[in-house]
Amino acid sequence: MTENLKASLVIGEGYNPWYNLALEEYLLNDLEEDEIILYLWQNDNTVVIGRNQNAWQECRINDLEAAGGKLARRLSGGGAVFHDLGNLNYTLLMPRREYDLKEKLKIILKALQDIGIAAEFSGRNDIICGGKKISGNAYYLGSKAAYIHGTVLVDSDLEKLVSYLNVSDAKIKSKGIKSFRSRVMNLSDTDAEISVAAVKEAIKNSFSDLYNQGQALNEIKIEENQELKELNNKYSSWDWRLGKTPDFDISFNNRFQWGEVELNLKLASGTIAEATLYSDAMYSDLIPKLSNSLIGKQFKQQEMLAGAEKVLDSYNWPDQNNSEAVKEGFLSWLENELNQII
User: Fold this and answer.
1) What is the pLDDT of residue 180?
2) Is 176 domain-assigned?
3) Mind giving me the DSSP string for 174-233?
4) How far is the C-alpha of 155 from the C-alpha of 185, rounded, in Å?
């Protein structure tokens, strides 16, 4: 039963999302049968997507990375979220038999109410205030352990949230799961004096009251180890963050002075499995060479442009006077289209 669980606390020390998510999975894997852990952590300038989401559909990756931000993919499902230092993340790790979403989220609800926030559950198991979402959550069920994690919007930059999570205009037909976007609000909108530190302290106290009879919590310090290093490598890898994207199709088209083109790509695990280029241009043998140059490439702008450029440079142009215009036009167009997605 819950009253017999040992309550422990872990405080994240850095703002790197890949390490923070690695530590979360490490705690899940090593959780004892009679233990419940509260893990409090923060990411800076980060978009975190759900396990089954299409990264390119959910996030303007180029804009995010150009601003020094990071894209991360978590173990749990659900929608895309933006994290900065005005946002606090919580994870509650427990034996699987103890998993009860609403029961465990009482920790967060009580904490917010204790500091004067008129917080309540919504029908989607989010926490709202005045009809607007202030805390969203997701969960993961392992074979022996489970976790519930979520965000508390304290004083987050909602302008960036909207900017980075804005879906591109490209024609993406995804087999992934689209984000549920609801109206959100910062706690600072209800109390300008509220701080992340105050919310963190309130959650710690609420957790202690409910699972440790109000006594001081045992704080766990995690030492660097091989398992944690390997998990960090996983979460930071292109394969996990982007290669795990569900298969999807994408189409671009444009009319040039020398002809109309339509490029259709089929992606599997973040790699171009099929590429078809339709065109009414006179260069009939060039068109299939361009499409073939993309097959097998990861959906990365530099790789795709390099493949197309190599074909264009080596092509035996029937009219050298027009070759530069075609090369520059095609590569510039492709780069611009990819800029909107990647």
Assistant:
1) 41
2) no
3) ESS-------B--GGGT-TT--HHHHHHHHHHHHHHHHSTTPPPEE--PPP-HHHHHHHH
4) 9
In the numeric block, which tokens belong to residue 98?
A: 């103890």
Instruction: Write down the pLDDT at residue 88.
Output: 98
Tally the C-alpha atoms within 13 A of residue 300's C-alpha that lie toward its C-beta. Answer: 12
Domain of residue 85, residue span = 2-170+181-243
Q: Are residues 222 and 254 in the same domain?
A: no
Shared domain check, 281 and 188: no
Least confident residue range of 32-36, 293-297, 320-324: 320-324
The pLDDT tens digits of the residues spanning 122-153 come to 876 789 999 999 999 999 998 899 999 999 99
User: Token digits for 18?
Assistant: 């890949």
Model confidence pLDDT, tens digit, residues 271-314:
999 999 888 887 878 988 999 999 999 999 999 999 999 999 99
Residue with tokens 């973040």: 270
Question: Which residue's structure tokens are 């027009």?
Answer: 322
Q: Whose structure tokens read 């993340």? A: 89
- Indicate the residue among 197, 226, 243 that finishes a domain: 243
Give Cα 220 distance to the centre of its chain: 27
The 10 Å Cβ neighbour count of residue 6 is 13
Cβ atoms < 10 Å from Cβ of 280: 12
The DSSP string of 169-187 is SSEEEESS-------B--G
Tens digit of each residue's pLDDT (9 = 90 or more) over 216-236: 899 999 999 999 999 999 999
Confidence grade of residue 1 (pLDDT, cut at 50, 70, 90): very low
Question: Do residues 247 and 272 touch, judged by C-beta distance below 8 A?
Answer: no
Pairing relationship of beta strands 119-121 and 87-95 according to DSSP bridges: unpaired
C-alpha closest to that of 140 among 33, 45, 21 = 21
Instruction: Determine the Cα–Cα distance for residues 178 and 230; give it in Å rounded to an integer.
Output: 29
